[in-house]
Amino acid sequence: MSTSRRKFLASASLVTLGATATAMTPSPQKPRLVHHVFFWLKNPSSTADRDKLVKGVQSLAGIETIRMLHVGVPASTEKRDVVDNSYHVSELMFFDTVEDQKVYQDHPIHQKFIADHSQLWDKVVVYDTIEA
Amino acid sequence: MSTSRRKFLASASLVTLGATATAMTPSPQKPRLVHHVFFWLKNPSSTADRDKLVKGVQSLAGIETIRMLHVGVPASTEKRDVVDNSYHVSELMFFDTVEDQKVYQDHPIHQKFIADHSQLWDKVVVYDTIEA
Fold first, then answer.
1. Per-residue pLDDT, B22
2. Torsion-angle region of residue A77: left (phi > 0), alpha (psi -120 to 50) or beta?
3. For residues A14 and A94, is the Cβ–Cβ distance under 8 A?
4. How far is CA A68 from the centre of its chain?
5. Residues of chain B with pLDDT under 50
6. Residue B122 class from Cβ within 10 Å (0-12 exposed, 13-18 middle, 19+ buried)?
7. What is the percentage of chain A residues whose pLDDT exceeds 90?
8. Rounded to 5 degrees, what are φ and ψ at A31?
9. Is the Cβ–Cβ distance between B90 and B73 less than 8 Å?
């Protein structure tokens, strides 16, 4: 690997792939803030509840300050003591700034998401991380 | 917001910003797998230990299957019961596939990172998430 690739990866907040880059929302900044939310369902065996929550999280893409959204479920990676795969849905977002994340928190689309889906989850854990 | 933007954000694994897109590593796939690791230091008050661990995580960028790397520390977002800001360093990576993540796990650069830094941390929690 070249030094330039290492430098790029170490400093870039996001890289992307191929044609998707043309569809991005332009921003004057790098999205330095990561907001990662894990949901545990009240009914862990209900795939209907899980799918509804996944769709709900996807609807958050309507909030303009979100620079990237990844909605997921536990991956089939190797089982290890340090891996927590007990959650049911993952919501991962990038924002440019802490302020942009606050806009998201207060946004009507986010408030509607909570009102429409909070009965589905039993527990939520949030990690907010700023680029070091 | 347009329907196309919503559709794009809901389906894209990653978006990026401006000039950085030109520096990316080409890949035939979307990076669907998220690997998020949180570290708690043995010496929580040691900024030297934290900085050493941050640099160590940044060195992982040398592993070819990593499509994006974000290295962070807790952000100054609003304090809420659901927010866990007790960790000290965050390592967030995207991979194309579960197999690419396994290549990373076994890679000499990763093994060297563990050998050189594992004395710094007291606890590690890992979340592996595949795009829903």
1. 30
2. beta
3. yes
4. 7
5. 1, 6-24, 26
6. exposed
7. 77
8. -80, 100
9. yes
Q: Which residues 33-72 in chain A show a CB within 8 A of chain B?
A: 33-36, 38, 54, 58-59, 61-62, 64, 66-72
pTM for this entry: 0.83
Cα distance between residue A13 and residue A10, in whole Å: 8
Give yes or no for residue A12 having a pLDDT over 90: no
**For residue A30, what are the CA distances in angstroms to A61, A74, B6, B47, B80?**
18, 28, 21, 25, 26
* Structure tokens belonging to residue A10: 């170490």
Interface test with B, best of A3, A5, A14, A90 (most B CBs within 10 A): A14
Are the beta carbons of B71 and B57 closer than 8 angstroms? yes
Q: Give every CB contact of residue B74 below 8 A, 6+ residues apart in sequence.
A: A128, A129, A130, B85, B87, B88, B90
Question: For residue A45, what are its two tokens?
Answer: 């065996």
What integer pLDDT is reported at residue B31 of this predicted model? 83
Look-up of token digits 């299957």: B65
Q: Dump pLDDT digits (tens) for B20-35.
A: 333 345 455 678 999 9
The ipTM (two decimal places) reads 0.83
How much is the pLDDT for A2? 52
Select the residue of A61, A92, A126 nearest B82 (Cβ to Cβ).
A126
Helix B47-59, helix B108-117: angle, nearest 10: 170
